[in-house]
Structures
1.
Amino acid sequence: MDLTQLSSLFYYLSALFGATLVALWLSLVFWTYRDIRSRSYDRLIQILAALVPAFLGPLGLVVYLVLRPPQTLEEVYERTLEEEALLSQIEDRIVCPGCSSRMQNGWQVCPKCLTRVRKPCLRCDRLLELNWQICPYCATPVPGARPEAAAP
């Protein structure tokens, strides 16, 4: 091999290495942009986060990884749904007015303090709240209710 061939080979290898570095650099910018899009809706934050590795290279990626939001928007949404489901389960259970213990929905009487919390309808046998004037299921007036409060 003569010096011109060796120089030509070195030129091609350095061009290939440079192209690989540029491709790696662009892929860092692209990956950062895609990652921040899954973590934030703010357009300005997305652009600024993509510019960090564009100017700083691999060090910019490290800076981005330190500063990025810890959860994706999907993870935040799923966690919110889980919390709402748990809260709705807690709210569905009634509390005894006498002893404040939790009760199940189908109970008429608190098993701890024997406080009556519901009463059965005389016609359809479904459970009614104590303050209801009429059964919402069969429209039967509740005995002992004021006649003007009961619906026709």
Note: Residues 3-74 form one domain.
2.
Amino acid sequence: MRTLEETLVQYAACHRDRRNIATHFLGIPLAVFSIVLALALVDFPAGGVTVTLAAIASVGASAYYVKLDPAFGAFIATALFLMCALASEVVARAPAPATLAGAVALFAAGWALQAWGHRLEGFTPAFRVDAAQRLAGPLFLCAQVFFFLGAKPELHRRIVQQAGPTVARRGGANMTGAR
């Protein structure tokens, strides 16, 4: 398993254009929520309570993020908990086919926004280089929030030192990932 810094540096290297980062601030939560929503449709009894696949996946993801960094992990776990709560409300009120269709639409919208951001920046999405980077998106957004608030300045400095500075506009163009 990569360290927190290695994970964030690799992800940040393909996300230095502010326009691309902005698309990810909406696209990643939409995509993550769509997965939570779809998984919330599958539930089963477990010792007198009903458990959803969304809850199980969220606990597993939260454990991964907490292992990388307890503060980031707690922040992401809170977001996942809120997504599970919202998904539970949707599932309770909407028919399953409509819920699943909504999840698919949200997933497509989330990925389309991110693809547009990468088109603006001109870099291939990080997950094309390394599939494990799919889990780095929420972590990257969390780190960006922490850095904006002045938290973890040393980690921020090391990431910028290795991945380069964030810029207003990085070029667009070839989508190769080459600098």
Note: Residues 4-163 form one domain.
3.
Amino acid sequence: MRGPSLAFLMLCGLSACDQTGDTKQSAVTAIPAAVTFDGADADNQSPKRAHGERLSWVLGCHGCHGKSLEGQRFYESYASNLTRDLRHYSDADIVRVLKTGERPSGKPMWGMPSELFQHLSDPDMAALIAELRSLKPAGEPTQPMLPFEAETKELIAKGEFKPASDFVKELKDVKPVDLGPKHALGRYITLVACAECHGPELKGRPNDTPDLIVVGGYSRDEFDKLITTGVPPGNRKLKELMQDVARNRYSRLTPHERDALYAYLKARAELPQ
């Protein structure tokens, strides 16, 4: 009797049972898969680390922390030597730093683009941490911050330069337009990467970066050349920063990711203005 009774209990655990023993379909909604970069579904350590290593470039970690992630000076700030400092952080600490812009102690950070990283999916975050955990200690210890200079203090007074944690809170719900599941991957890439320079809604920054509606005027091949080499149609000269970002970061996007990014930006550009 144990077998049938157990089977009945298991059946009731998977469906709603009324008092007569009849079963009714449970209205359980499946959780949609997280939107991720290609390769986030790696199921063992080696490919997971490889995915995380690629993300460390796409997301700009090396741009601030140096090619070997051993840290470097930025004006008054110093991007940490990740090869040394992360040995003292738990995985939860790393997630907190990246997603909230706060150190484990609660002290706010400056210059960390956590307003972007707060949107990083769990599988991508796990792969990035796996890569960071693989780093062997090297280089010099992280240097202390210098006192803010007058120009920086003025920007702080104007509210133009704030702790990373402030930007996280202010921009949490400010995102590029949602064009549905078909364009979810392309939107996700803009949210955690392109928004750093072009703003959280991709509308650009005055006198600095353009609204990404400009992609509407690019063919697929022209966009691919721009995003991988930093060279736009007509071989115009772009800002050195965009050239560097394209060559060192976005050239590492997979063809599928570049297709998704172009499709999303093209569809966004074609919306009624």
Note: The first strand starts at residue 16 and ends at 17.
